[in-house]
Amino acid sequence: MEPLRDFSKGEPEIEPVAIPSDPGRGEACLAPGLISRLLPSKTAVISIAPLQSSSFGNSPLTRRIYLDNAATSFPKPPGVMAAMAHYANEIGASPGRGAYAESREAGQLLETCRERLRTLLGGHSSAHVIFTLNASDALNLAIHGLLSPGDHAMTTFMDHNSVLRPLTELKNAGVIEQTRVPCDPNTGLLDLTALGRAIRKNTRLIAVAHASNVTGTLQPIREIGKIAREHGIPFLVDAAQTAGHVPLDVESDNIDCVAVPGHKGLLGPLGTGALYIRPGLETKLRTLRQGGTGSNSELDVQPEFLPDKYEPGSHNAIGLIGLSESLKYILERGVENLWEHDRELTGAMLKVVGRDLPGLTWYGPRKLAQRVGVFCVRLENYEKPQDLSDALETRFGLLTRSGIHCAPLAHQTIGTYDVGGTTRFSFGAFTTIEDVTALGDALEELVRHV
Ligand SMILES: Cc1ncc(COP(=O)(O)O)c(C=O)c1O
Known about the structure:
The protein is 34% helix and 12% strand. The chain has twelve helices and 13 strands.
């Protein structure tokens, strides 16, 4: 691990450094806020500084270890900021909305992003990749766009509010019926027999989170997709916690549509996401929003062709160009290798929580093969999960998230709903084994000396 740099004694002089072309891991940290605070006004240089250095929060510590990758990933690969700055400073134009080279170039950059997403998901054509604001926006498009009055939809108790809320909204409005299939309280795993039994004649959607953002439970999506396909029911996967972490292939995983955030495991900026839909689904998927697309301008109806049908309005070009760069990084490093990295960290964390730490309760699968690097714990003497997050931040510089994590039914499943939830640690592409060791040491210390 890089030695920590202590910025507490004043701002250091930052030397402009070249952005590494090698997509290796490690030093790719753009420290939060550092760039704007440290850069001379007009110098377009990127400083590579370790995350563990900051004047954030009340902590006297200079060490900051980011363990909240399930919320959004940090840091981003080095090329991301550079690509966004290049677009902002040198291109600026709106894709598809100008009769000049800069607009065409912006359009081309977005197409590259689309194609990289298609490659990552194993999709059929890049036109079937629809850009959205985040994973929730993609899930809303699929849920509201596919369901009609009288339909029945299914999801699970481990799913996120981004699936639960759109479905409940439709149910409460009397549009649909819904079933939320319970999951195992110890592992969070979905019971496939229970899923099969809950299917009705009018079931028109099965929506499942590939991995839980509470317990890290990986659901058997290939098998669920097989069941859905046997019944001719569209299968929607919420890959918010797996895209970029776990290899996904829409064909072999039997997926009809998959929602991905650009800003979590895909390592892009906030405000980006996508919905991939299998060819043919566009005949069933209605548009939620209509508007200008820069195409078919002579018509006052939404174009029928993809992706314009589902992408009204000007794009978040700067965000998508950043996402394209992070996708390039992911494709070069390889999702299999990122998955291997996640295995290593998760295995190390399983050893940490597997130690006999008195008063520590942790949740989710015990088996490495059944989970990703998202862990939730409760510690006796820290009745409120937020108090544990505060102790971890102020005493150890560890950044975590506490509470219900937008997944109330998942917390009901594991029995932590009524006690205010849990404290969560989540790993990412730039988390190191040393970070996991630091977390283990901190938990040990808190258990032994409250
Ligand atoms: C499982 C799951 N689904 C959906 C979302 C929503 O993602 P976004 O914030 O990109 O809308 C999250 C975010 O935490 C999540 O963990």
